[in-house]
């Protein structure tokens, strides 16, 4: 790298390489410098917000040096890069993570203390970067952490939404959505006004034949929008590697605004172009596991994919290699079907712009892409109407038809005369209007397709993608079980537990190789170790109890069992079953004498999560939880025996506080519906036990930690279809305990019953699609087993320690290494300590 710096600049460059703070005093100097110059404030009026900003800038300076070096190292190595395309990156806060990954949190803590600040208060100033809905976006964020920590040459590509997922307020028990404007001051992004790409929409296609008889298609007309790059440095843990997340922001191509219109008095329209362009990256669609088919969403997808591919291709072309080497240099992973247009866009670049033959281009395309499926829910599988495509992306629609034609011809050769097979696998659905099936396009355009947990990967092969297994053979389909980064989800979220673990494993190496957790199992009978283990959990619960008091006004007893279900609100995740169970518990307690009640295990039922703004049933569930809380929490007969809490605005930074404080967490989806789940892994890694169904990664968690350490219940995925069939065609009765719960709601125990009738009739009158009634008895019984197990505190601690010790498999490092070996064919880049 050094040799590449021109002679006149080398001396200054070398001096600069050693700048940045090295110790506490140096850190303080940097903070003061940033307060006084970058922020143009004085230390006299430096509040916590300014301290946060200056501290972030001091760390950012360090990161950016490493980021530059990393990019240069990767360019010089000229080896294969992986590009992770995700429409969501749920990053959370950056400062704490940067301090820990760089290994300078202690320095910052001491420095801030000398300047008169508590580091916790400074960290709290940061606004979450919430560019995602839930599990899928957070998985992408964990992957970025692992890619950098493992020294892979990797870039993330996403959209820079001006508004991330909405902020949730609970008013009178109802969810209210408030816009999340998070960009006021964001020290973690670098605008790259020099890196812009023109993106075309609409227009028409003309075709002509060249001198060699080849058809040349040209996409003309329409409108152009500018994509501007914003770069976010991603620090690896305990390595200098600092990767890049590039987010695109949309801007009008035609400059600021139309002066002519302005001068002629047409004020509104003078800014219309600009506003229309900026709308593209304005807001994240707030649906999790639901496709709504809105035009603006398709615009977002193409805008982001086209800008990213332009960037990737430009980088490849600098190496002056032959096109056929593209897949040796570039791997692109499609996170769900959202970026599937990239398949078509690359084919367009190669055929229309670079003049390659169709076959050669298509070989390059299919060897470049991999596709990750995250759901089997039909309402989440993306489809776009053909007329919409025709209007917005006319050339891409033609290419899709060509891709489909060649694909169907190959299918026909393999399955002659099987018309139905052709209709089933076709990329075009012959409906009214016709639809483009994005998952089919993603499968046809990729060399590997993976699910995100074993059960899920099996299910996609036997259900939604069954025909494709016959067409392509089973080897194209594989599994990579999800993982989580132990840096954020253990070391950062639960520092005391991390420290206790390192005191027994002998180092912090378990944060790089999570299987080293196994060593703590030797200490599971060690009295002092167990005592500290329990104390840490209790302290985390005290902290959460304070937060509950502050935000809801309710006092909860930290000695009670904390039972937590935090995740997006969705019928398939079955928060309704949980709250029905809570009502059952309440009714049981009310029916007992005060003496009998005392034998009951006190519980705090904690819920959190956002409902998509248009998801009526999910909003009703939130309302019922709050309505039950309002009654139960004020019932003098009940006292500390049961509290029901809804925590507002669940997000990554709240998750970091809530997860370490749980005794029991609920992962109770209808079997076969939750592809994996990742919060289940986070809870167990923090010493909480799980009550769950045999679904998603719960199954592999059970295999790793042992059946004795998890509370499984409910019907199995393989039986769900038959049970549903029986609901419709056989005899169907609601579970008697659940009937009593419904009666209590209908009597008005929790306020106006009509407010909750949707939830009741879904179970009672509309076929109970999610099997709430079928699983209710088993759920209630298993909750009783939980109470019993929790009363044996010593037994509980043993389960907790054993579980954590056996969680090594669930690191996102393992997961990323599996992608690297099995899908991307890429190796880490050696990094010499500099
Ligand atoms: O992806 C999900 C989550 N809702 O974001 N899917 N989508 N789409 C799945 O439902 C989760 O089960 C999974 O853990 C997550 C990440 O793969
Ligand atoms: N939302 C947030 C804020 C999270 O932190 C997580 C995971 O930790 C999720 C959603 C995903 O949760 P689950 O896997 O339970 O769906």
Describe this entry's structure for a reader.
The chain is an alpha/beta fold and 834 residues long. Among the domains are: 319-479, 3-Layer(aba) Sandwich (Rossmann fold), CATH 3.40.50.2000; 560-808, 3-Layer(aba) Sandwich (Rossmann fold), CATH 3.40.50.2000. It is 48% helix and 15% strand. The chain has 35 helices and 24 strands. The strands form 6 sheets. It has a 9-stranded mixed β-sheet, with helices on both faces. The protein has a 6-stranded parallel β-sheet with strand order 21-20-19-22-23-24, sandwiched between helices. The longest helix is centred in the first third of the chain and has 30 residues, at 48-77. The N and C termini lie close together (12 Å). C-(1-azido-alpha-D-glucopyranosyl) formamide (CGF) binds at residues 134-136, 139, 288-289, 336, 374-375, 380, 452, 482, 674-678, 696.
Short characterization:
The protein is α/β, with parallel strands linked by helices and about 850 residues long. Helix content is about 50%, strand content about 15%.
Instruction: State the end-to-end CA separation.
Output: 12 Å
Q: Low-confidence parts lasting 5 or more residues at pLDDT below 50?
A: none
| Ligands present | C-(1-azido-alpha-D-glucopyranosyl) formamide, pyridoxal-5'-phosphate
CATH topology of the domain at 560-808: Rossmann fold
CATH architecture classification name of the domain at 560-808: 3-Layer(aba) Sandwich
- Using only CA atoms, what is the Rg? 28 Å
CATH H-level name of the domain at 560-808... which superfamily? Glycogen Phosphorylase B
CATH class of the domain at 560-808: Alpha Beta
Q: Biggest sheet, open or closed, and with what strands and sense? A: 9 strands, mixed
Number of helices: 35
The fraction of residues assigned to DSSP E strands is 15-25%
What general form does the structure show? Answer: globular
Give the tally of β-strands.
Answer: 24
Mean pLDDT: 96
Strand order of the largest sheet: 7-10-11-4-1-12-13-17-18
Tell me the structural class. Answer: alpha/beta
